[in-house]
Amino acid sequence: MENFDLILLLKHLIIGLVQGFTEPIPVSSSGHVMIASEILGMGEQGFTFAILTNTASLLAIMFIYREDIIRLITGFLLFIKTRDRRYRTDFNFALYVIIGSIPAGVLGVLLSDYISDSVSMTTIALMLFVTGIALWLIRNMRGTKRDGDLTKKDAFLVGLGQAVALTPGISRSGATIISAIAVGMKQETALRFSFMLYIPVSLGGVVLGISDFLDEPNKMDLALPYSVTFIATLFMTYFAMRWFMGIMKNGKLHYFTYYCFLVGVLLLIFF
Fold first, then answer.
1. Which residues pair with residue 145 across a beta bridge?
2. Could you tell me the pTM of the whole model?
3. What is the pLDDT of residue 62?
4. How confident is the model over 171-210, as pLDDT tens digits?
5. Cα–Cα–Cα angle for 230, 61, 169, nearest 5°?
6. 61 by DSSP, 3-state: which?
7. How many independent structural domains does the chain possess?
8. Which domain does 180 fall in, by range?
């Protein structure tokens, strides 16, 4: 029994590391968790598990962008109160985050039954190919738009990209970063805007799913394995995000094209 428990904890540790590493990068974290679960013989991970890991990743991302979050909220409120032009850029950026969150928020509620369904490895492979092709198409794009140059149209188009990522197997960060670069954002701005969009949508998912988490019948038995997963996801997301920020800064996003193609081919061969 002790060996079984240790093995179970190790499996949850691995799943947490996989989730944490793949959440920030454009390769579909949900798809990789499904792959890892299949390899480890753990079966499909439920909605409660998804809420748990998503919360851990969300906390890591919010910690990294804590100064931006505080500045945007402060600037947004101060502009409303004072109409001071000094806060106009932060107000607009925060407003665009709200606009960009609407498509995924609305579709997430309307299509919740569909998007929560499990998908086949073939579907994940095909979606990795789609992501890889999109990354390849934008590999040479060097946008010029900074925070103060964005428009409502840009925000909505990137928001549509995030909505597309509700499709199982499509990377959320990949879809939003690709969309942001495609509308002309600089890579640094595209990265920040992508993960600012991630925060409200993920918070909404946590709020909507908290009742499912509390109603989980086996939560006491799973407390230790879930804690291991949560901690592993939290720390790995932080380090993966820091690494990915360096990738974006150096303009090496196209490296993930090769990875998506490789994993897609391997899935078609072995699954």
1. 185
2. 0.90
3. 96
4. 999 999 999 999 999 999 999 999 999 999 888 878 877 7
5. 75
6. helix
7. 1
8. 2-270
